[in-house]
Amino acid sequence: MKSILSIIFSFIILAVFSVTNIYALTPAKWYSINTDSVYYTGQSTTCSTPVMSLLSQNPNSLNSTWSSTASPPYSIENFVINVLQDVATKLNLPSSDTVTQQHVLALVAWAYLEGGNIHNTFWFNPWNTSYSQPNLLAAVQSPGGFPTYASFNAGVEAAAISMTGSYQTRIGTVLANPSSNATDVLNAVAYPLPNYPSNLGWDTSSPPAVYGSKLLQVLSQAENSYSQYASIVIGPGQQDTNHVSTSSLAYNYGSLGSTQTVTNPTPNALVTSNPCSTAINCQTNSSGASSVNSAILCEAQRYNGIYYSWGGGHGSYATFRQNCPETAISSAAASSTSANPGPCGTDCSGLVTVAIDAAFNQNYSMSVSDTTGLMVGDGAQYWQPISLNQVQPGDIATWHGVLNGTADGHVEIVDHYDSASNTLYTFGSHSTGSKTSEINSTNYFMAYYRWTGPTS
Fold this sequence. Notes:
Blueprint: H1 6-19, H2 27-35, E1 39-40, E2 47-48, H3 54-57, E3 74-75, H4 76-90, H5 95-98, H6 101-114, H7 152-164, H8 169-175, H9 182-190, H10 208-224, H11 226-230, E4 233-234, E5 280-281, E6 286-287, H12 294-301, H13 317-323, H14 326-335, H15 348-360, E7 365-368, E8 375-378, E9 383-386, E10 396-403, E11 406-418, E12 423-428, E13 437-441, E14 447-451
Antiparallel strand pairs: 1-2, 3-4, 5-6, 7-8, 9-14, 10-11, 10-14, 11-12, 12-13
């Protein structure tokens, strides 16, 4: 924990917890709170100084939950209605403002597209939110990178928090308007820019226009087959299996007979420069703006010039360090060859894992999914999505696709992003036959994430 004058700390505590609440924090400041790092305010010239980890100073702020009278089997519609009620509570509004036919339709369609607990095993997480409030999580997490929540109420609370705070305040804003229709809601979901420059796209793996098109398609389907979509049962082991009786649904209107369109409100979305993404000099530990997570980059750069080794860096960190002692790292590049990378060689996700474990005294083993580009495995839940314009040293960038008919995924560690030339500089272990090095790319990587897990 960084030291700070007690008077400043007291002022921040009052400012954040007395005047406002945790749901009102900007996305950038939310990151800063979780990582003790500098943060980008969303403006083109401002890079703020670190904010202390206020969440850890106020445990009561982490214990919020939702209470409903719902009982199993839990339907998607029932879940959606409770989320809308919870959103109203958090925004100090009557529930009639948020619980409307159009809002329910929009969230039911959106849940089906995301597929949480419908097409995957992330229980009570229909929208695949990344929110990880400890008291809401299930004791055992499903593999794949998104949280599994402990109960119906826990999942409702996590969804409502995500829609009214964190990186997605625009969603709560549009749901607070009782006159907004399903199109308005999904427009806000797909296109955070330019109207909400400090918000992030919900699906950071897809361009807004692509995600918006998918939302439009599923909205049309949900309009005409509402009972089928809304009656899906969620909960442990329920994905793709059961439905409640359609007579139990609050809404059952079939087609609304309306034309729904999801379009970008401004074709030329606002592009802002991130002054926090200045390259860091790991030798002197200096930069225009550094962060705790820059230690991930600096640890990875110690392996500069070592050939790629498939599977290297995975498994126990203690075993890796035993085979590749600290004293051997500096000379490993000289002895490494394409045919024999040596014990210090890693693959792309192995390098990320080793860097985190070394920087923060952890023992994780993570990989990048070939089909989704998400980090999976122990510790993967701590990677939180960010936008390209928010990247800082030590963040990661991922790609996934099909190469030679086979699904493939890749991850590298961000050095910095030059928004003027739209060039991302990353350091990584690239592929078989290549050495770890810094590279630059334009429009290659698909998604970006920041480590919000343990840093000591």
